[in-house]
Amino acid sequence: MAHVSAAERRPQLIKAAIDLMTREGVAAGSTRAIAAELGVAQATVHYTFGTKEDLYRAVMDQITEDLVAQVERAAPEGAGFEETIAALAGALWRTMSEPATNHQLLTELTMFALRTPRLGEARQGHYRQVIEVTAQVVTETAVRTGYELAQPAETVARFFLSGFDGLTMQHLCLPDETAERIGLRALVSATVALAGGRLNLADVPVD
User: Fold this and answer.
1) Distances in whole angstroms, Cα of residue 131 to Cα of each of 21, 29, 48, 164
2) Per UniProt, which keywords does this protein have (predicted)?
3) CATH of the domain at 38
4) 64 and 45 share a domain?
5) Tens of pLDDT, residues 144-169
6) Is residue 87 within 8 Å of 141, Cβ to Cβ?
7) 153 and 142 in contact (C-beta within 8 Å)?
């Protein structure tokens, strides 16, 4: 059998872990089960990553990287400030509601990381990166549209993401499509108001 280097195995194992835990949950993600998902020996996981926590950290990094890329693509060219925030909300909501985007798995891993000290850095890194990218979108949109921010972009980003996290938790615990659509519109309206402008709630498309 041809030897496969750790560098080649790494993305394979990350994908296997994501596939398994998206399907069965974080609790199912033992190194033995992840190895079986890929069809390799359990020792391969430890050889490639060292510990299960190291693999989980790599999984969080990968999902975060994919999420950030989606956030960066969400801003429509030529759109106004309000339209861009609405587009951002809509794009993020789709990543949360579509299983293939792994947003729910990232939420589960974040909760798991709260009680796993070795994953603390990965948890903080994930949130820091998402905040930075969202703040960058806010800043660049304000500059492009001539929109004068009344609050720092990071403050606006943190506010928006805090509201989005709340809507995400409600969706996971007690889904209600109508309430969620209203909630997204309200979040966009409140974010724009905080940023320094006014917005008619009925004029915000988040579909």
Assistant:
1) 25, 28, 30, 12
2) DNA-binding, Transcription, Transcription regulation
3) 1.10.10
4) no
5) 888 889 999 999 999 999 999 999 88
6) no
7) yes
